[in-house]
Amino acid sequence: MLVDTSSGLEPVFALVYEKRVTVGTFYYVDPEFERYLEERGMKTDEVLKRVAENGGSIQGLDDLFDEEAMRVFVVAYDIPWWDHVRAQYHVGLWVDAAVSKTINMPSWVTVEDVEAAYLFAYRLGLKGITIYRDQSKPGQVLVTPSQRTERYVLRVRNRTLEMMRSLGIDVEPFLRHLERGMAGVERPRPVPAAARDPEPVGAIAMAEPAAKGPEDELCPACGGSRLAHQEGCITCMDCGWSACTLG
Hints:
Layout (H helix, E strand, L loop, with lengths): L15 E6 L2 E6 L1 H9 L5 H9 L13 H6 L8 H12 L9 E4 L5 H14 L5 E4 L11 H5 L10 H7 L60 E4 L2 E4 L11
Parallel strand pairs: 3-4
Antiparallel strand pairs: 1-2, 5-6
Helix pairs in contact: 4-5
């Protein structure tokens, strides 16, 4: 915040911060969001105040922002906790050591949510995760729409819940978070019985390291022959391609 650096793989915590001092009120604005407002002639104290009072989020401010903006400009607590876990998995595919990532959870999550997050991370093969439940500390600065309404209000289509289900995790208890707030999200489809007992690492389909001739051991991405069988997956040592990358 002090030197305007990015938050790395973490999502923006708030698009607008309000700071009150003796000489007046100032707003700290995310650079990309600020550019968006300027291009549309919307950068006014009134708009910044509305966003700041909305916990730094634009979700639910339908009179100011359209559907596309709400899909692009999301903050940490707008994102369902399962997508935080999935984000750490995807980034970790390209990191040699470990990844520091916070799995933000609203105050209304249950013990079952936390348990499922750890189980999801474990079955994806993550080294570890850090869970922070909102209001687990006495003071709370920002309160976003998802925290007030006890539901996720963001509308984004993806397959994360379907992936969890394919890894043997019961997602039905978490659909209550989405019934009203995320009507646009596809409900997980039934998973065939054969897919209910997946490998402990990887998500949808693992490549079988079957015996193959030298002519078959070529990377489909770069054509290189330096393929390694690691942790039940095939990885190219030349370009980094992996057969276990999620779809």
